[in-house]
Every structure is written in structure tokens, then in C-alpha cells.
Protein 1
Amino acid sequence: MAKNKDKDKRKKKKKKDKKGKDPGPSVKDKELYEKLRDEGNSKRKSAAIANAAAGSSRSKVGSKGGSSPSYDDWTKSDLYDRAKQLGIEGRSSMSKAELSKALRNH
């Protein structure tokens, strides 16, 4: 019975060590990293978000992303191909304006 208690203590100790472990020098915003880990995010994802937040501001991290030209600037062929990728029905009989509208509303 004493062996089982020792085994349980070792398991608890290991868990405690992992929880409070310093993420290392590669993580720039350790406070945010720990918060994200507590929420259940992976180490990799937490580190990526924490480092992105440290590079700019926390409020700007979620708004990062690329940009794309307006559907009005696309050719009808490009609009048709995109509608096909998205599975928009009736695309073969649509005009350029209708394809553009269907893609915006998809």
C-alpha cells in the first residue's frame, strides 16, 4: 500500500512540474502563453499567438490577414471557377454581376 502512495505522489509532482514550467526564451509574451495553455491550446499554437502579440499589440493579432481584390475586378472566368470551388449551384447560367453577388453572399 505504501508503494501506491509513493507512485501517486510522483504522478502529482510530475503534473505540477509541467504546469508551472517556463516556456523558454522563444516565447515573447509568457503571460499570454500561459493563459492560452490554460484554455487548452497546444504549446505550438499558444507560442505562435503569444509571439505575434508581442510583435505588435494584442488587439491587432486577430485582425492580421491577407487581402484580396474586389470581385468586381475579377474576370467572369475567375468568378465562375471560384463559384465552382465553392459549389454554388446555377453558376453556369449566371452573369458576371450575378456570380459576384453569389460569391459575396456565400
Protein 2
Amino acid sequence: MAFGVARIDSSRVVCMTRTSAHDGLSLVLDEVSAVELQTKSPTAAAVVALDPCSWRLLAISEGSMGGNVCLSVASISAVLAGAGISIMVLSSYSGEYLLFPSETQDAVIAAIDESDLGATLHILPAHTVSGEALAVLAGLDMGAFAAPEAFSDTVSGRSPDRSSPRESLGHAHTLTFDTLTMARIGGIASSSLPVILAPLLDLFLFADASSDRPVLLSMFDVGGEVSILADTESASELEAAVEAAVGDKRARVVLRMWRGSWTPIRVAETLDLVETGVVASLAGPLADAGIHAMFYHSTFFTDYTIVRHDDIATAKTVLSARHHIPE
């Protein structure tokens, strides 16, 4: 897959996320792709910020779509926050996955064993993607595609500095519900990805080139299925592109989109990679309030909690007890 500043094998890109309303492009890559990104493009250093730490994937649950997703995320995030371990979470169409720094693996296993959660979790082996350990986080400056002369030396994103880990279980954040108002969630088999790849990349790179409309897009590829998270307008464009390519009847098989309305809740600040307890402070109160259908999505820049639109009023009430929600 040709992707801007470097050639990245699509089988080695675990997750791409773009939120044009606020951030650049967030990537989760295998280590080989990360090296290629740094060495094969003369402009990569100015465009891409790479976290020097490698991360491992842990499967929280599989086939949990529509089930008690929030309970799974809340339980494991609380356990690891209590152990002082920084985590990121990626919800997919078919399961929930957690990223943790590779050097904390022994501590993660110990915390899980002590909590009796081990029966529902498993850590993916080191040779999951193209024979290389997962994963490396990166943030891409979207100005790379529009104004090369304006490249900055660094890309603003989560701080990779782990010299002073911050354990902030009670730290309050500002949450925003505006701008990105609706989301759609879907899945497509990896074997069918060529059908949707061109329009998907168009949206990732150029969706807001001529307008100010906000874009929320994520493509997450694990286990032979690509999970897609998109704002309503982008999802409609993807569905139309698939229908044009394969016909209306087959399109419903190739691209499976949930029809429900979902609302993203964004942490308004840039988060540190070393900060602990962020996921627990969001997922925990929602689970306690009975909101069990939830998607959690971490990026290089910040975090998103995505709940059913019908649950937004309850979510605002329970989250405002700990976090700041502007009127």
C-alpha cells in the first residue's frame, strides 16, 4: 500500500486513525514498518513522530460486539491502572485489544493472574504480524500532503518520555461531545480490502481538503478482519464505493456496518503515553452506570470513548462527576 511518505505493507499496518477535526494521522505499525518509515523517506523525520517503545497486544475479548464490552475494558483497565501500567485500548468490530509497553509484560501478567481475569484474556505472541513483534506507535503530520514547506521538526502528540511515569488515577480531563457527533462501526474481511482500499485511502488523506467537515476514521486489521470506525458521512461514502464496485447485494456481505448511531466522547487534551488510569476513569463509571455497549479507541494523540447515542445523556452525567464537560 503506497501511503504518502513511505511504502507500508498493508498486512503490517495494525491500525490507522485519522481525526481531522483535531489531530493528524495516528498509526500502529509493526517494527519493520517503523524502521522503513524512518529510513526510506528523507522527509519522514519531519513528518512522523515515533514512540521509541515497542508495545504488545493483549486480546481482552473476542466476538464481543454488542455484548458487555464496557465491563471487559473497565475490569482490565482498573487492574492495570492499579498496578501503575500505562495502556491503550483498540476496540474492533470483532473484539477488544489492549496495548501495553513491552517492558511491562511481566507486571501485566502478574496483575492479571492476581485479579482472576486471566481466563478471559490472552497475550498475542510476539510473531503475530509479518513475523515481527507488535507494535510501534506513530503520529503523522497531515500537513505532509498539503504543504511540505511547512513541516515542523516534531509532531505534537503523546509524550514518549518515560523518565517520570505519572500515576494519575484521579486526574480529571476535559471531555468534548461536540464536532464529531455520530459514528458508524463496521467490518470487512482482509481478503476483500482491495475493494474498499482506494476510497478508504482517499478519505484518510483528502477527506477535508476542500471543506471543514470533521472526519473520524479508523482502520484496524487483526485476525483476518478489518474493523472500520467512521463518521456517518465517511461511512456512507465507503458504502457507496463498495456498492459501485461489487453491486448492492454483495456490498452488504463485503462491508458489514452496524446501523446504530454512536457518539464519540473525546479527551480534549493531548495525553501522555506514561499516564495511567485514563481508560479506567472513563470505562469504569460507564460500566457502573449500566452502559455496557462501548467502544474505546486510543490514538497517538488522545483517547475516544464511543457510546450509543441513546446513552449520551447518562454518559455525560456520570463522567461529569470526575471530568470537566464544557457547556
Protein 3
Amino acid sequence: MTDRWVLARQEHRSRQADAIAASALTLLLEQGAPALTMATIASTAGVSRQTLYRYYPDVGAVLTGVAELIAAHDTALADAVADEEDPVAQLELLVRAVATAGGHEDHAPPELRGALPPEAREVLSSHEQRIADLTAGVLEAGIDQGRFHGELTPHVDAPLLLGLAAAADAGRVDRALTLIHQLVDAPPQEDTP
């Protein structure tokens, strides 16, 4: 009985910490770094300042939580990509995930990165590298299967394609996909008689 109670409490604390980090991310994207105070984060998250301090000792720790929240989706995304067999479908899944991550509108990721303390920037950089490596693997598979241009350099081109995807807002994902397909898709093979 005690073990279940401890697990339930840990799960609740984890959900609460994630909810606070998600609220801080929303606040950061909507109002910018100057709006991030413990009082505004607590208010936005709908918790008391005392509760906020129980999870995060300062704004820097909250921002590290934001970076960890963003990075936590890596495993689920990698699993979803692995579930797709077709590299074209895998690439589309990655582009859609990156383009819709965080529901950004006109706020550039550099604003987020600039507000993060060094340890949070490291977490975010590791996340970005994992996504770039995943994308490079998809490009390599597509080249091997003749689906993507052989001239691609996967580890060089993956971050560029992800940058294009990140620049697309949720309403322009299809346009980003069109551009990416124009860049990476191999020309159709002509049948020889």
C-alpha cells in the first residue's frame, strides 16, 4: 500500500512540475523572457508561489524544466518514426513534429534559447542533436532505398531541413513539406523497355 502511495505521489509531483514548466514555456513565448518571474510563473501555472518553490528554486530551474519538458518527447518521436517503414513517411512525421512543436506562432526559437541558463541550453542542444541524428538516419535510409537524392549529405542536410520545418508555423506545414520534398526526393526512375 505504501509503495503505491509513494508512486502515486511521485507521479503527481512529476505531472505538476511538467505543468509548471509548460506554463512557463507559454509565458516565455507569449510575453518574452522579461515576464518570467516566480510570481508570474506561479500565476500562469495556477499554483501558489510556495508550491512553485517546492518544485523549482528559481527561474533558472524552471527554464531547465522547460528544456527537459521539450526534450522528453524525443523517445516518443523516435518510436513513432521507427513504427513507419517508409522513409518518406518518416521524414514527413519528423517535419510535422518539429513544425508543430510548442505551437509557436511568430516567436523565434533564439528567444527561447537566449532566456535559458547554460544547463538548460545543454539539455536543449542534446535534444536538437538527437532529432538531427534521427533525421539524418531517415535521410540515409531514403538514399539507400532510392527514395531520396543520392547527393544529400544526411548529417549536414538534416539540421537544414529541420530549420526549415521549425520556421513553418502550424498553418504552413504542408508548404514546408512541399519544399522539403523538392529538395530531397529522388527523381522518378524511367522504365526501360
Protein 4
Amino acid sequence: MGVQGLTSFVERNGHFLRRQRVRDTRLVVDGNSLYYRLYFTSGLDQQHGGDYDSFASVVLQFFEALFTCHIQPFVVLDGGIDASDKKFQTIKERLQSKIREANNLSRDKNGSILPLLTRDVFLQVLFSLHVPVVQCVSEADWEIAALANQWGCPVLSSDSDFYIFDLKGGYLPISYFQWSDVVMCERTSDSYIPASLFSVNKFCTQFNRMDKKLLPLLAVLAGNDYVGVPSVERLFSACQLSQGGKTSCRIENLLRWLSRFKGLEQALAEIEGQVGGVDRQAVRSQLSSKMQDYRLSESHVASFFAGGSPTFILPYPLASLPPWVLQALFEARLMPLVINVLVLQRALLSVQVENSQLASSHAGSVLLRQELYGLLLDWKQRRGQGACDLGREWAYSTRGRGQVQRTCDLGWRRAHSTHGRGQVQGACGLGQDQATYGQGLMYVVEEYDRQNLDLRRSAVPSTVSQLVRANPLEKMNEGPLERSQHLLLNILQVPVSVVEFAPPALALPACVTVYWLRSCGPRITQQHLQALVLGMVYGEVCKLRVSQRGPALSCVRLQRIREARGDRTKLDLDSAHVFSQWQSCLWVSLLLNRLLGSPLPEPDCARLYSGTLVHRLVRELRGGVPAEHMVEGALPRQLYCSLFSAIQGATGPASSAPASASSKKRRRRRRRHGGRRPDTGDVANRFSLLQLDDD
């Protein structure tokens, strides 16, 4: 997470860096830093939920630049929250800050919010390019540094911790990595990327040839994210070091003070002398412990890139996971949320741009998360852990779905619900190892999400249905996909007809959209659904056009709307909120689909949603333009009708009832005649769940 003020200090002193031509080398890439940097520096939409197609294009161009220069990237990603919780307070503070920034963006003010599916889009591009990638168990900084040192190659990141690690191949700050300006050497015809390299050795020579072993002490004293030494401020006062002002000035003062010492022991002895009293040994112990984070040894992930398994020491219960689940975690095909839920029974939900006066957009996907938590925690409980008391008891006064009312232990506790799916009252420490929840079982997860403009925690009960009991996590990669598909559709409460009628590549998004229409309230209008479906059609047509390498397929009108310049219309908060709800539902459903063995095809996330396009389409549709007039050509129009009909047919009043004999006969006839889709007429009847705009 970095050392406060160190990056700005180095950037103000360019002589600490040297120019470097990067080519013909391995490169260890900090994946989290990279996708943040690429998104935020490419002028991409943040206010409307993201333009994932444009982001995918940027990621593709970045790695193509590396390949042109014969640079072999190895991407390392952060995993879950550190089980020690040493950085948890900082994580919560940053999440709170993001809530404020998202609110600013919703009011057309400044802010920076990474759209929800950015990481998924980034990874899908990497998988398509066969770029080696590994996901760590927790924060990746140490693993990145250890791997680069083992290979003797540079690190690419924006994390200031890499100014502290003693890296043999040096550190390449992303801000100086000019990947979009690849240079070809006229004499050799070789290509390279201009960059700037940071070397610890060169840096220390600028400060009286300071011992580089003092740099970890600099990081701790300067306020590394989780520093908590109570006597440090007293130390600053005793040594007459500046505590206030710019953090970069504080860094410089610390460097000049540390450069007076011949080595680490002398500096620690001076600190002990200044602190004095009973704190002396405690301070040394805490400082030494925190400096250990910068001491490098053999990499745990080098073996993974060589075709083996990482050598992480895994916290309980990860070591006992089914091999296919553990492998999917290492390959970053399963999100860090899985680690957090299994290890800590905790979930931190990403901030989106939405209407902050309403419930969080993630409230719309709470039932899906309950099923997800149940699938994971039921497996954990059956591993023999029994009661898993997290030692936190709080009081709740909630009436919403998916929350606990009254004081509740965050462990395995008994609770009875008479208020329907997703709402539990009286989940109070009755001392039981498991909880009755309707026809299934319930465990509790500590969730952190937005409430108004504050970060709030809540206890969310998990659902373990009889269907999950019959299909436990460890058996999800066994047996026919039809069984997993049945379970997924049951979780989404979607009839199989949606999968039968939707194009295969869009089957999962279609199911998610049906769930969204049913679960996310009356603010969703017909125009919202039409815009969302048109956006999916546009993405799919663009994808087909690229694969066919020709202009035969096009959506000229949609493309013109998507690429229009100078649109400064104020953000429509209702649209922003419902589309954020849809993204939340999709995000959870992607993870569920992967955990169930991908019974539905993994959709291309880059082509599913363009915030700029769908928000503009809502305005066009409200202006009276028929949705069918937005698509030209037989194939795009057929794609729209198929997808729209699949969704609309499942949201009518009769869709939740058992199919009659006559309807089953009609479905069989449609299959015999090539799966012809139902007509898109009679919109008023089929949109009984949708609120029509008054505009």
C-alpha cells in the first residue's frame, strides 16, 4: 500500500532516477497498480459505470507494446485482506474516502472511482493473450519483489514500497513507463520502451552513502499504512524532526537524519535512547517486526510460473480447499472475495457511482451473495471447524432484507426467519453450531457497504439450501454441467427458457437481467431495459465484426451515439443507480458461475456494458425513438429481438408459474422448428414488472 509521501519526494527529485530502454527482459508487473493506472490515465468514463470496451482496448495495446519489445510480462495480483488485520483500518478509511468521491461524481464534481468490472475485464484480456498471471493469498508487494529479485529483472508498479525493497533489477515506476511511445532503433531495428529506473544503491549514495538496510526503518517511521508505534511521535519531537507539513518534506528530514548513522543497529539504539522508559523494548520490537516486511527471501510464486504450485503458507481453511478451487484462486479466475469470506467471514463491497440517498446498489444483489456465502461457508463448516466465533457482537435495528435484527454473534448461530427469504430476526447467540433458515441453513458474514455517505458494517445471513446441500462445493467440478446449470438458475430464480432463447454468449447476462428486473425495485423502467439490451447487442456486434475482420456487421446509429463528443448532460441519478444495481448482480453472478464450474459460458465483460452508451440510449428512448430503430441489419436486429424476448418472456406475470401442458407443447414445437424466438409485440403486457416513464 505504500509509504506516504515517498513517491512525490522521488518525483520532485528526478536525479534519483536514470533513463532506461526496456526491452528483451522479463518484467514482473504489479497487476493492481497497472489496471488502476491504465484506467485512470486513459480518460475513460467513471461517472456512468465505466466504458469497458475502451478499457479492454487500452490493456490490449499495453501488452502488445511489451510483446513488440520482447518483454515477457508476469502479472502478480493482490488476493484477500491480510488475516492479521494489520492494514484493515487503513482499508476501511480508503473505502470511506471512495464513498465521498463517488458521491462527488454523482453530483458532477471531481472524484476517482474504478468501475466495478474493471478487474474482470483486465483479466479476461490477459487470459486471451496468454499472459502469465498469479493471484496471491493477500497483498502482493512482497511476492512481486521476491520474484523479481529471484529472476534479476525489474518491477513495474506505482506502489512506493518498491522504493524501499532492495531490487537487483531495479524498480520502474509506471508513471515514467512510456509504453505508448515505443521507439525503434534505426541501427538495429530493435524496439524499446523509454522508462526511468530507480535503484536503491543510487538513491542511498545521494544521502551520505547511507546503509540501504536503513530504508525499511524509513518506511516504518514515515508512516507505512499500518504503522502503530505509539512512541514514534515522541521520537520525532526528541530528534527535532518535522511532524507536520508536506509528507515529502517529512521524508527528506527522515532521510537526512538516518544518513547520520553507520547502520541499522546504531539507528535503533538512538531511537531507544530517545524514547526511554518502559517503551524502549516495545518500540524496538515493533519496529523490527514491521521492517521484516521488506526482508526478501525465495519467491513463493516462481514455482507457479514454472508450471507447479505456489509455495504459500495458506491460512485455514484455504489449504483444505478442493484442488480445482485452489488452482482457480491462484490463476485469478476466482475473486479475492472468496478468500475473504472463507478466512475472515468478511466482505468489503466496492463503491459505485449511484444515488447516495438510496440504499446501496449492492442491496439488489444481497440474495445472490447470501447463496454465495452459503456455498462457501457450508463447505468450511463441514471441514470440521464447527463453531467459528469471530468475537464481534453488535446491535442492529434493520428492516431490510439480508440483515440481522437484534444483537448477533458473527459465528455459527441459530436463527429462525418468518419474514421471507433474506431477512432474519432474532439471530441471537443461542449457542448452536448451525442455524435454521427456511428449508436450509444459515451462517453470517460481516459485510462493509455504503449507508448514506458512511461506511457501515452489517451481519448478512448466508443461505444454504437443500439443493446446495445436495451439490456441495467439493463436487461442483464433477458430474454433468446440466446439474450445475440447474443450481445456478435456481439461485437466480430464472426459468430455463431464458438460456434456451438467449444467444449462448449472452445467456448469463440475460439471466442476470431477469434477476435484476425482479429484485431491484420499481425504479427500473422499460427504457433502462431496452438501453441495456441495445448496449449488449452493440458489444456483441463489435466483437463479431472484429472476429470476421470486415465491415459486414455494423450498428451505425449505436456507434454514432456511443462516440458522440461534447455531451455535458447532467448525470441521471436514477439511471446511474439502476445500472449500478445491474453491475452488482452481474459481478456476483460471474463468481457464482465460476464456482459452479461455468455451466453458462463466461461472457466477454468488455462487450457487455458501456456506461456512456446506455445512458445516452436512455435519453434517446425517452425522446420517443423506438428501440428497434436503433439497430440496422438483419443479424443485429435478430440478436436484439432474441435477447429482448428471452428476458421479457421471463418477467411477465405468468413466467413464475409452472408451465402448462399447452405451453410445453409450444416450446417443443419451437425447438423442432429451429428454436424460433417469440415475437416482440405486446410490450405493455410483457412489461408488467416495469414502470413506464412519465416523461
